[in-house]
Amino acid sequence: MTSHQGDLALLQEPVAQRLLQSKVPARLAYVWTDGTPRVVPIGFHWNGSEVVFGTPPDAPKLKALHDGDSVAVSIDTDEMPYQVLQIRGRVRVDTVDGVAPEYAAMARRTMGEEAGNEWVTNLGAMSSRMSRVFLTPEWVALLDFQTRFPSALERAMEKAAG
């Protein structure tokens, strides 16, 4: 049975699993304190149930992100056929001593083991704490432009075929 857009089961699809392990940054969208939208590129780690972002405790985004706030994230490719994973949900935020393990895992995944470990060591020397933003998925969309298309394009394809 095929999962529909919005279904959390889409996270188990092979395209989604590849995107959740990709080296490209996610695009995190949230609402700033004045009510205007913001989108920032940010490294991420998928822990199997949440998307986790590491950030300095004094990062501007933490002025706007609080436990229970709704956000959206997009993880995608830059070559046709595009593949896009979109997740909406609520966040929780905490701060840990040292470099967050999720951030360290992201650094090794995106930079390679040696360079990632070197970056984490250097970062740890610069900052004694790190904040984490955990995104719990509540809605998921997956586009691969082969079997799953944006709804307007699907309607146009159905109309052309019919």
Automatic annotation (TrEMBL):
InterPro entries: F420H2_bilvrd_red/Heme_oxyg, Pyridox_Oxase_N, Split_barrel_FMN-bd. The keyword Transcription regulation does not apply. The keyword Magnesium does not apply. Residues 16-140 form the Pyridoxamine 5'-phosphate oxidase N-terminal domain. Keywords: Oxidoreductase. One of its GO terms (molecular function) is oxidoreductase activity, acting on the CH-CH group of donors. GO terms for cellular component: cytosol. It holds the Pfam family PNPOx_N. This is Pyridoxamine 5'-phosphate oxidase. The lineage of its organism: Bacteria, Bacillati, Actinomycetota, Actinomycetes, Micrococcales.
